Amino acid sequence: MSPAHSPGQRRWVVIVVVIAVFAGVAVAARSPGKGPTGPPLRPAAIAGAPDAESSAWYCTGQTTAAGQLAPGSLVLTNTGKGAVTGTVDGVTDTGAKVHSSVSVPGRGQLVPRVPTPKSGTWLSESVTLTGGGVAVSQAVHGASGWAEAPCQSSTAQQWYFPTGVTTGSNALFIALYNPTSTPDVVDVSFVTPKGVVHPINFQGIVVQSDQTQVEPVSPIVQDQTNIATTVVTRTGRLVAGELQLFSGNGTGMALVPGSPRAMQEWTVPQSEEVDGGTSSLDVFNPGPTAQDVTVHARLGSGPLAPFRARVSPDTTWVLSTGAQSRIPKNDPYAAVVQASGGSGVIVGRLVAAASTDQAPQDGAATAVDALSAASPARLWVVPSPGSAADPAVPGAAPAHLALTNLSTHRETYVIEVMRRSGLRTIASGSLRSTRSFSLDQAILARTGLNPLIVTSSGSMAVSEDIGPTGTYGVVTMPGIPLSPALER
Amino acid sequence: MDAQVPAVVAVVVTTGASPWLEETLVSLAAQHYEELSVLVLVTGDEPAVTARVGRILPEAFVRFLPGRPGYAAASNEALGMVEGAAFFLLCHDDCALDAEAVHNLVEESFRSNAGVVSPKFVNWDDPSILEHVGQNCDKTGAVVDRIGDGEVDHGQHDAVRDVFVAPGGCILIRADLWRELDGFDPGILAMGEDLDLSWRSQVAGSRVVVAPDARVRHREAVASGALPLAVAGVEVDGRRVTLQALQRRHELRVVLKCYTWFHLVRVLPQAALLALGEVVVALLARDRQRARAVAGAWLWNAGHLRELRAPRRQLAAHRLFPDAEVRRLQLRGSARLTSYFSRLSHQGFDAANAVASSHGATPRHERTVRPLLTGSVGTAFSEDSDFDELDDLGHRSGRDRFGRPVRRSFLSTGRQRAVAGIVAALVVLVGTRGILFGAFPTLGQLAPLLPWSASWHHFFAGWQPAGVGTTAPASPAFGILGLAGTVLFGAMGLTQKVLLLGCLPLGAWGLSRLMRPLVSPRARVVAAVCYVGLPLPYEALGAGRWDGVVAYAALPFIVARLARRASMAPFDHVAGRGWRATPLGQTMALGAIIALATSFAPAVLPMTLAVAVAVALGSVMAGHHKNAGRIVWEAVKAVGVAVVLCAPWVVGTVLAGKNAVEIFGLPISAAAAPGWGEVTRFAMGPTVRSPIVWLLLAGAALPLLLGKGVRLVWAARLWAMASASWVLAFAATHGWTGRFTPSESVVLVPAAVAVAAGIGLGISSFENDLVGMAFGWRQVVSGMALAAVTVGLLPVFAGAANGRWGLPASGLEQPLSFLARTNTTASYRTLWLGDPRALPVGGWSMEPGLSYALTDQELPNSGDVWTPAGPGPAGIVSHAIALAISGGTIHLGQLLAAESVRYVVIVDGLAPSEPGVAESVVAPPPPGLQQALLDQNDLRIVPGALGVQVFENPEAIPVTAQRARPVAPSTRVTSPGPQDLVGWHPVLSALAGHAAATGGIRSGALYAGYAPAGGFSLTVAGRAQSGQSVFGWARQYPAVPAGSATLSLRRFPFGPLAVLVEVLVWLVVALALLGWPGSRWRRGREGGEP
Description:
The complex is a heterodimer of chains A (488) and B (1090).
Chain A: H1 11-30, E1 55-63, E2 72-78, E3 84-92, E4 97-104, E5 109-110, E6 122-129, E7 134-141, E8 146-150, E9 158-161, E10 171-178, E11 184-192, E12 195-197, E13 205-207, E14 211-216, E15 228-235, E16 239-247, E17 251-257, E18 265-271, E19 278-285, E20 291-299, E21 302-303, E22 307-311, E23 315-319, E24 333-340, E25 346-352, E26 362-366, E27 368-369, H2 370-373, E28 379-382, E29 397-405, E30 411-419, E31 422-431, E32 436-439, H3 441-447, E33 452-456, E34 460-467, E35 476-478, E36 480-481
Antiparallel strand pairs in A: 1-6, 2-5, 2-7, 3-4, 3-6, 7-8, 9-15, 10-14, 10-16, 11-12, 11-13, 11-15, 16-17, 18-24, 18-27, 19-23, 19-25, 20-21, 20-22, 20-24, 25-26, 28-33, 28-36, 29-32, 29-34, 30-31, 30-33, 34-35
Chain B: E1 8-14, H1 21-29, E2 36-42, H2 48-56, E3 61-64, H3 71-81, E4 87-91, E5 95-97, H4 101-112, E6 114-123, E7 130-132, E8 135-137, E9 143-145, E10 161-162, E11 170-174, H5 175-180, H6 193-203, E12 207-218, E13 235-236, E14 239-240, H7 243-258, H8 261-284, H9 288-303, H10 309-318, H11 323-329, H12 335-358, H13 377-381, H14 389-392, H15 414-436, H16 452-460, H17 476-487, H18 492-501, H19 503-515, H20 521-533, H21 536-542, H22 546-565, H23 583-600, H24 604-621, H25 628-645, H26 647-654, H27 676-680, H28 694-700, H29 702-706, H30 709-733, H31 744-747, H32 749-768, H33 777-792, H34 794-799, E15 829-834, E16 844-847, E17 850-856, H35 875-885, H36 892-895, E18 901-907, H37 929-934, E19 940-941, E20 948-952, E21 960-963, E22 985-986, E23 997-1001, E24 1004-1008, E25 1016-1020, E26 1023-1025, E27 1028-1030, E28 1034-1040, E29 1043-1049, H38 1054-1074, H39 1076-1086
Parallel strand pairs in B: 1-2, 1-4, 2-3, 6-12, 15-18
Antiparallel strand pairs in B: 4-11, 5-12, 6-7, 6-11, 8-9, 10-12, 13-14, 15-17, 16-17, 18-20, 19-20, 21-22, 21-24, 23-29, 24-28, 25-26, 25-29, 27-28
Helix pairs in contact in B: 6-7, 7-9, 8-9, 15-20, 16-17, 17-23, 19-20, 19-22, 20-32, 21-22, 22-23, 22-24, 22-32, 23-25, 23-38, 24-25, 24-30, 28-32, 28-33, 30-32, 32-33
């Protein structure tokens, strides 16, 4: 029988099925998919997996011994069990090069002996390793004081520095280092309370491959209480660092690694306003739109009323925390800075202890960014200020280690000291959301100049204050995230 | 009493063999015309003729002519024998004239002042059937009848009118004219003398008219094959010249003779071109006789050019009519071509070629009497109003035979449908103008084709350079490209355009064929136009996708054949003839189509099965279970045939293991995947993204609402097919189907077929299923659907303005011009990274949205487009890239050095983005890829490559290289260390041409980065060198002496032999499908000539 004579013409069955298919897929299409969005963004400093084929770190901002301003050393911290070999290649601003082979023992630290360059004032270094799991930091010291900071594990097309001072005799330097094989053309601009400055001689700076160049800012952008700096490449990628020398009422030195991107959340795990001292949070908005910024400060006893401001594009909101009456003196607190309505901000902290306190009294650092807090493996390594044989400065030692739980849940944490013999837990516990924990100096003193490993079950901002300094925050070392799970 | 009428002499030429001679004489004897004399000219050796004539016409003159002259030469004898006649009646010996015929002819000659008068010829056995009412002819001398085959005489042609040709058999000609013309052309032995006489008569200023009142029955004994042609000179080398060959040679002779030089120069090239095309078509249709006839006509005339001098001079002396006037009387265009296309469009290839081939070769009485075709394409194209059959029904005046105004519905006439088709073709032409007249850019799958010889070589070679080299057989696409390139004399650019752009009309034609059993001609045209008006093929073209365009052309044919094989009504009639019409033949034909399409668009293979399953489900939904399972089974069988036809390639693909399914398409990033709305409106590319396209879907829904019977069942099947297609496309692009991610350009084609066919079904439902219904919602919905379809076509119409369907004017050839190889030394390779939609080469997937490919360091060509399913040792590259993305290395250049990767190219779109120019397909690679490569210490950015990111790897080892010290051998896959990278310099030529790599070398270690390493051997000065494995896949010859070295593949040629067998299988199948064994068998059975 032909269809024309078929008695069972199920027209509505067909229509219903077709509509059902359309509607079903439409509903399914509206549900959020699990489409791959690519690898997550990585912090500027992160230690690769121990089984990585190779890894590299880039350090800039030091001077040579002959330069005297801020000669320093590198600290290579191997979190893996096996030794990692590599090379340290230094280049000065005059093009002089030095080379050193290194072998970092498993679960150990190494302060490599880098030959003295034949010429040049400023020195940048590449650490190339035939494996991963190694974090590299640098420590500098000079007449103004000393500082420590992590090196960078990747290059970028832009770098931001939220803090800088050129008032009086304070000196500010921007160090540019191109470790790639592609030449860079770089523009450097500054945001001051008076507006944006694009010095003509800081535009179109050519930094050749494997070249370092340091720009003194103080003579160009003079007498500014706050300078935020933007380094952008027209072509190529590089590493940038900031060296701040304080020499006013107090002395100090800050080696500030750049931040490659603005972010919505920054954390200062521990801060303290001290008598006779000042401090501020510098919130720099490099984006094209104004952003609403909120600073949530929390004492051990509870949260404070937040500070809010609307930060216009290319401006810096300087929150003088030392001048805020709602922040009590000599009571440690943590601060979380959140921005909304734009692409994010960069947050730094400027600290000045009383001039009568132990030198160095002044310091600056970038707050802990959200990417570093959200370490992929929930692991951080906190390098020590040198090794027992080679301390960054005489008497250098961790003052205290602070953690701030940035997740919305209670998270557990374990703090371990890393020795050649293995890991030893020195503290553990749990933290409710937004709460902080500080490991006091007495316990840290027993660890010596050994690196610390912090393990958490969630996002955690990790930062260590290091002495000897006038107060907390003058010299700090953030926890460097580890990308893989730790070999135990 | 003096005669009151002019004297007429009837000249009857006979061989004496005609059994119808008596009837001819009887009819002459019975003429009601007083002054009629009969002269019988006997060309044969039949003395009995005298007696036969004498019994009927004792007063007739009988004259024997020796030497078996032809009809023309014999007739001319009358010129010397007859005096005083006013007219000659030139008769065959198989004609029977009505009693008033001569009277009417003579009368009409006077009335019309005509020099030549032709009667109305009717069938000998059935006088109600018309044979000829005069004939027409085009500029190339092709004679066509004014009536159709088997047309019944209702008096519809009973008007006296001018014609160009008075058909032979019975011609009345004024005696003075005949003498002036010197009679027939004696060089014409048979077939064509009537054309010659008529043409020359008109050149001499005489009219040629048909007088239908004079009726003649004509047996056409020779033309129909009832009697052999008994003329001396029709055998060449003992081989009989066919009537068709005589007809063709004499047509050309007439053309050469009757035109002035000026016109000849204009016409002859056109005639030659048409002849060439006819020969090609005849060969394709395995009609060697016709091909021989056409070609032989030219050769024969070339050899008889001298004979034409005198006739030309004589004609020039009598010329009163210029050629321009003569041309005005002829048909415009090519009558033969128009007739062919008319039959092709209505009855298909077989019918068209069967008629063409049978012309003059098959006994007329054995020809199939086909129904008259009204409104044919030929009619529409013809400017001769006589071809418009509707005129005979009175439609030309706009009124019917009762005087009422005729209401013509839209697209009811062939002319209107032809106009619709022409408009659609024009839109496509306008939209494609920028592509037609320019070169294809290097993007998508549009890389320049290999030269024809290289395409063949690539197809047959046992090794191809994909990745770091593989012995997997190449896609049959290379064989097809090689064949097409050979046919087109190596013009590969033209080949690319013909094959790619030819898919657009082919698809429309396929859809028209699909709809033929289902709907009316009007609905077919609408469906075909809608198929052309869907964005899908242009999106595929704009995105540079061969696969989408090829699938667009192939799927309608596949669906139609599947339905036919499953005997789904009304597809239960099997077309074709011979072995092709058998079930096995049909399955083989379907399999061959699938195989052809799969070669370029592998996803056609699974889509054939998907279509079959969907149609089966649609049948079940519609409550019509019959044959639901059979279509799936038939699809499986056809796919099996296709697999066998592509066996070497399929085996090589299957051996790729889990990568095998990637041959159907590579997964794109779900984040950049099209949404459900984009999928359902075919907005997959850059050109036509308007939501208005959804209106076409609304039109396609009409048969679901209105259809009855077979239309509803087929609407259900089509919508099931469309739904399956859309769902699969959406699922595949969103990563729901795992590794099986067929190209969305192909997956969506069944939906396009279904939508266009649904619209045609809607028209058919409107025509059939609303008859007798009172006005209501159905009519309103129909009107709305029609409007929706009309508006739904506008986006493509608007998209045509672009002229390129969004295809960028330039591709990667400009920014990457530095990759063009400047010497023949095998140097390095290029690594391509990006979304599969953006890569200008084929490749392998790393993750959804990120594919990679490894090519020689040169701009891509077609050899890089259809890559094998598995990367082989080149898979190492993906591990290295993944390591870099995860941050596990800063030495990617070092990791890629052994694979000789000199350049890494990241593409983030179909074509390089340029400031101020709208981007075509934006398909960025996953975030983090570029960052990962930028973080590599040993990769250097190549400046100046606009729109793509290029990195140079200075660490790369040349593909064939030498240095003093060998590297450490390793059978395990390893990466080179820093010490392994220094000191290499390139040696030997490239293996890209699959020939051996040769060159002079120095003593030292030689590295050969080709896989499979064990398959190659190196000889230096004729002596084989021992090698060892390095890096787990490459080959190193640690200590070679200086000399002339040759690196070549030394394996048993399994691959080439398999491909050779494949080609032979294709040949056998092609011959079988074209019917040669069948026709031989048939001829043998019929005792015909072999």
